[in-house]
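Every protein is a chain of amino acids, and every chain bends into a shape of its own. The fold becomes a row of whole numbers, each drawn from a learned catalogue of backbone shapes. The protein below has been through that process, and both of its lines are reproduced in full.
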Amino acid sequence: MHPRQSIIEIFSTFVQFDADRFSGWATEPKLRRSMQSYLNRTSQETSEHFWVLYWYKFWLISETKLLAKEHLAAYLQESCYWASQKTVNSFASTQYKLSDCFQIAIAQVDKVLKGFNPDRGFILKNYATALFSSAIRENLRQNREIDICTDWGLLRKITKKFLVESLQNAGLLLEDINSYVLAWNCFKSIYIPTQKGTSRQISQPDNEIWEAIAKAYNSQSGQQVNSQTLEKWLLTAAKAARRYRYFPVDSLNIPKGSDDSWEWLDNIPGTQQKSLINEILAQEEEQTRNFQQTEINKVLVAAIAQLEPQVQEILQLYYAQELTQDQIAKQLQIQQYTVSRRLKKAQETLLRFLANWSKDSLHISVTSDLLKNINILMEEWLKNYYGE
């Protein structure tokens, strides 16, 4: 799989399979126009993190929920693909292909977005990958269970919700679904196998049981349906349950109401965009600051650990107990100038560590003015660190 390059591609293209292999990226025209339009309005902002937060905010708004979901589904294509490949490889005996697992996973986008919380430091791709993998494994487990059950064992194991969804997927009308569900309820309440062994392999009910099921059904429905018809319905229900699979997300080309020319792109409220962008930028800046603060903590704690024990003790006495250099010298039974020299050397060492980190991680030139600012930051950090 070759990676996507531009922000427009990342948020508007989808994985294509050929013979269960990745064959390329397919562009959704509406999503591409949407991204291009909003890039033009946001000074060509190219940060992935910015656009994740941007579309996540729009996903929280009912009017733009579907468009935002599609953009984020496009964004998560790689995560879904690699989670699918890794999981399907761990199930060597499964009949599912990579593309099947991919469809199972990508159907979880709504669940991913409902659980995603950027305020808690979540990274969307990492969070989605874990959920995708879990969904695939659970689906494979459930379907492996279905595959080894007889029709009657399967009907005893499935839930009403799963049965209804299976029948809806099979295209049955609501009236027919209600009849099938009632027949299934009567079957489950009356046919309780007594033979030993697993419930997966239970056999077909005998004639006496079928007559009891028919009697219960007719009593509750007010109809007259024979046992052969009920058996046919239940076998149809079992077949529908076996065939039931997840569906891909809806196309963006679905018109709203009777307006065939309507596009999702046209339905984004422009009046709130500026404030939304400002909110996202502020959130992104706050997260960046928090990340940098965490990194600074790591750098300085590691640097202090490399100092000589007596130098660490001097820092402790100076910043935590706020002793003067004379008081420190008296307590440690050394000369005051020794305390001064070692304290200054420790400060210079920590400053050098912090300056090197700024240069390597933030990619900025370390000027004399910047060193002064870094020194002020370091002094504040030392007071807070030893004052805790």
Remarks:
- The longest strand covers residues 21-27.
- Residues 273-305 form the longest helix (33 residues).
- The CA atoms of residues 7 and 46 lie 6 Å apart.
- Confidence is low (pLDDT under 50) at residues 246-274.
